């Protein structure tokens, strides 16, 4: 009696079927790759056409950039992933943001000795604009934030901490947990904070408050004014530079002098 | 009179100053009516609808006795409506709100009132000068608007096509487990994240191999100058400043550096515990660095990261990493106080 399904013949047949299946799988993939290449060429020419008409818009118009970025995100594309990407090469989006990244790094590095590696987004914005000069393209805070997001991948500790309606930009790998962040947010209004204020507002024990403040001191993010009237004040140079060295217009100056 | 803001209605222009709301016929500029802002009781927006344009409805207070003659003797209505046929309602509303809040007419006296309905010489001259400016502004605005809206339209169309590409490539990338060069480059060009590794595919493309070799050439001298090690952010700035155009993205740099080892180049990408990433000359071995750190610290008795940085001409960031590394290996120990972090030779 013949027994089907078992024996050398059946096994060979099975192997053959598997091999055929794999082969077909490869062929399928090959077909698709060919199709993809064709589509890619078409897309490239579409992109070229778009670039020839609107490349300026990307550079000049920050609203347009926002729109562009959001649309890319929606379809699952990161136009800033690589300088070699189509978007970078043809629209020049890449160069815009990568150069901004360089400027951000340089500003943060220059001020690190003073603020410990923490700076408000506003101050960063002002200084970057200054550094770019009068004739350079304008950059918005949205542009800065996108550039900073990209810098994170280089492990230098870049991050953004939400504070008082805007952000603090961190540029050193100091460990800042929720407790530190909350104290920074508390200090935002006046540029400094005291142990009592922390205890009152956040309902913490003195030890917890001191622990957080010590860490900020150690990291160079806070300076101690032990000669303040009632109680030691912990000042954050990242914050007080805005309060005490803001540019004043001539009218404001007139109003200030008695 | 400070001409603050202007918009075109379909037969007239509404102007807002710090003191008045003015309407002027677009064809006959001598036909002009004005109303002091102080007459406004309250105002509200009416959004545009199908077949309806956006409007602002302005409710007025009772007529004062000294009111100048206007287009109508009487009206049963106590409000007027500004109908914005083209656009401008939002901005006008915003500015009106601002002026009504600030009430600047209470502080500064109004300048000479504009001539109303008279054919006086002075009035005509003034109107002509302003007409020229207004027209220029309007033309510019229309052109800019046209450019922008065309740009947005084209962008939307482009994105639709891009979306098709993304979906196709995702379905392929999912099927092919072993990604060939071609597919990886394609994903990279489009900026699409590899659905399997979730990286916008970096390592392993021809581009990154080339980059890695370029970096090797470029970084030898700077690295030697800096004690054999540079933070990746420093490399990023150095390389991109030198290139000037066609800059590298941060990801490009990281992915190129990851290839140093497999390409047998004498550089290495190294990640410290803190997350800090550096490029380091392979010749500068770990043991050497630790030994040198220990020597320096022993020599001075103790060192902070800042002092060590000054000594070696390194950045504070990197000198700190070296000290931490030596500590990790058991050669140094720390004294952590509010004064700072100081390292001592480990005598335990």
UniProtKB/TrEMBL annotation, chain A:
InterPro entries: ESCRT-2_cplx_Snf8 (IPR016689), Snf8/Vps36 (IPR040608), WH-like_DNA-bd_sf (IPR036388), WH_DNA-bd_sf (IPR036390). Keywords: Coiled coil, Cytoplasm, Protein transport, Transport. It is found in: Cytoplasm. One of its GO terms (biological process) is protein transport to vacuole involved in ubiquitin-dependent protein catabolic process via the multivesicular body sorting pathway. Gene3D superfamilies: 6.10.140.180, Winged helix-like DNA-binding domain superfamily/Winged helix DNA-binding domain (1.10.10.10). It holds the Pfam family EAP30. GO terms for cellular component: ESCRT II complex. Component of the endosomal sorting complex required for transport II (ESCRT-II). Component of the endosomal sorting complex required for transport II (ESCRT-II), which is required for multivesicular body (MVB) formation and sorting of endosomal cargo proteins into MVBs. Belongs to the SNF8 family. This is Vacuolar-sorting protein SNF8. It comes from Cyclopterus lumpus (Lumpsucker). The gene is snf8.
Automatic annotation (TrEMBL), chain B:
GO terms for biological process: protein transport to vacuole involved in ubiquitin-dependent protein catabolic process via the multivesicular body sorting pathway. Belongs to the VPS36 family. The keyword Protein transport applies. Component of the ESCRT-II complex (endosomal sorting complex required for transport II), which is required for multivesicular body (MVB) formation and sorting of endosomal cargo proteins into MVBs. Its main location: cytoplasm. It comes from Cyclopterus lumpus. This is Vacuolar protein-sorting-associated protein 36. Gene3D superfamilies: 6.10.140.260, Pleckstrin-homology domain (PH domain)/Phosphotyrosine-binding domain (PTB), Winged helix-like DNA-binding domain superfamily/Winged helix DNA-binding domain. It holds the Pfam family EAP30. It is found in: Cytoplasm; Endosome. GO terms for molecular function: phosphatidylinositol-3-phosphate binding; ubiquitin binding.
